[in-house]
Design brief:
468 residues, alpha+beta, v583 fold, Enterococcus faecalis V583 fold, five-stranded mixed β-sheet, four-stranded antiparallel β-sheet, 20% strand
Length: 468
């Protein structure tokens, strides 16, 4: 028997360093590489924290939080002026994407967007005046998330900007988001040329009133239902919104035709939305925000209710810890760059759009949007693998969103801090890449993960508060 064993071809299973596996394969030996890692990166303290939070009370809290997320019914009910609509908004407040940050630590695109916002508001007449005002300490910079809002990339919201209003009809919470400007040189990438400002004025003076009329005539539009349909049409509603934008136009068009608008304005409004495949992005973000906020404050829950970044820091919030932030450094996005750009041009990860992944779409739903790999990189097999992997760190599945290629399985929903740490699997996010300098715009798109530190510190805080 021993002679037979040594006479047979070697078939190896490698556990540990992948270098050994590569050496075996290079010699033509049949081998399998097992990607094994010690739980919680081998940190005994973190394993004890996971154990302390593994009990019936926490499981019940997570079940309740997941049920609230799944039961939420966000409807688009109106458009309002930020100053008159957003809780806590003032004339001197400028909202931004990501966790709290000061002017001194802001990245180039975020600074550029704030300069553009001050020019748009008439608070300054030149970029130099705007920058001096921003650095003066007289303005209040605050995260969109602390005002029930979300903003893509730089995510800037100033007082007179129009915002979508979404209402959770199975709860009492609301969420808000700006209107999407389109691609190219836009405020959310830090651009503030006259072309950018003129577009923002037109959106405020023409687009917003027209859409407001149409929404009010409609009686409300079920955004969650549109997302569910779009997932079956090839979108993941973060970086691909072609189907969702088309579905939204279909819902809105009859009421735009009924609205009291000048013919030329009606044509302009329809043409602008139709030409912008990303128009629905801000709505998918606000819908995700409304769903997740429904679970905020559930005592003892370890589910994540927010993931966001400002180009410097990445931040998360957890249901059982309310409004407390847990942060780490924003990571580099790895993906496909537009021609003429290099890695040196990339700003670190930024924007509130990771709220889509937090609810189970975006990077978590890449298997529903195979074509997205042509934009962010990877292969169709990678897209499926990313979605399948996310089930390992979530509390359950969506009862509304499903992925056809996975047998219409519900999307992985309810990121559990305990599972992220114990299994050392970080959430998968697909995103755009901004140029490190203000005003140049998008330079590519790709994939990124949050920093480990966010989940480690959140787990420790949960264990301190609720551990047994």
């Amino acid at each position: 028997m021993i002679r037979d064993l040594f006479g047979a071809d070697i078939k190896a299973i490698n556990l540990g360093s992948k270098d050994f596996y590569d050496d075996l394969v290079s010699q033509g030996i049949d081998a399998i590489n097992l990607e094994w890692k010690p739980a919680a990166r081998g940190n005994k303290h973190l394993l004890e924290a996971v154990d302390a939070l593994t009990n019936d009370a926490v499981e019940a809290a997570n079940a309740e939080a997941l049920e609230r997320i799944n039961a939420a019914q966000p409807f688009l009910v109106g458009v309002g002026r930020a100053l008159d609509t957003l809780p806590g908004m003032t004339e001197d407040t400028i909202l931004h994407a990501g966790p709290p940050i000061t002017w001194e630590r802001m990245c180039g695109p975020l600074r550029g967007a704030i300069i553009g916002g001050l020019l748009f508001e008439g608070r300054a007449t030149t970029p130099e005046e705007a920058e001096a005002l921003a650095a003066s300490g007289t303005l209040n910079f605050s995260p969109c998330h602390e005002h029930d809002a979300v903003g893509p990339m730089a995510g800037v919201i100033t007082p007179s900007m129009p915002v979508f209003i979404l209402e959770n009809r199975n709860g009492s919470n609301r969420s808000y988001a700006t209107m999407n400007e389109g691609l190219g040189k836009v405020l959310r990438f830090g651009a503030y040329s006259e072309e950018v400002l003129e577009r923002l004025r037109w959106m405020r003076d023409v687009l917003a009133p027209a859409v407001k009329q149409a929404i009010e005539l409609s009686g409300g539009i079920d955004i969650k239902a549109l997302i569910a349909q779009a997932l079956h049409m090839g979108d993941e509603v973060h970086n691909r919104n072609k189907a969702a934008t088309s579905l939204f136009i279909r819902e809105l068009l009859p009421f735009l035709l009924k609205a009291q608008l000048e013919p030329d304005e009606r044509i302009e409004v329809i043409g602008f939305i139709n030409a912008n495949d990303h128009f629905f992005l801000n709505l998918s973000m606000a819908c995700s925000k409304a769903m997740l906020d429904a679970a905020s404050g559930v005592e003892k829950s370890t589910l994540v209710t927010c993931m966001c970044r400002n180009g410097t820091d990445f931040g998360i919030r957890v249901a059982g810890l309310g409004d407390e932030w847990f942060t780490g450094p924003a990571e580099e996005v790895k993906g496909l760059l537009f021609p003429g750009f290099t890695d040196a041009d990339k700003n670190p990860d930024m924007g509130d759009s990771a709220i889509t992944e937090t609810v189970g779409v975006g990077g978590f739903a890449m298997a529903a949007s195979i074509a997205i790999v042509q934009f962010v990189g990877g292969s169709p097999a990678d897209a499926i693998r990313y979605s399948e992997r996310m089930y390992a760190i979530t509390a359950g599945e969506s009862t509304t969103f499903s992925i056809p290629v996975l047998g219409f399985r519900g999307n992985p929903t309810g990121i559990d801090v305990r599972k992220v740490v114990a299994k050392d699997i970080l959430p998968q996010i697909n995103t755009g890449i901004a140029h490190v300098q203000a005003g140049i715009g998008q330079v590519g798109a790709g994939l990124v993960n949050p920093p480990w530190e966010c989940f480690q510190s959140a787990l420790e805080a949960l264990a301190d508060k609720y551990g047994t």
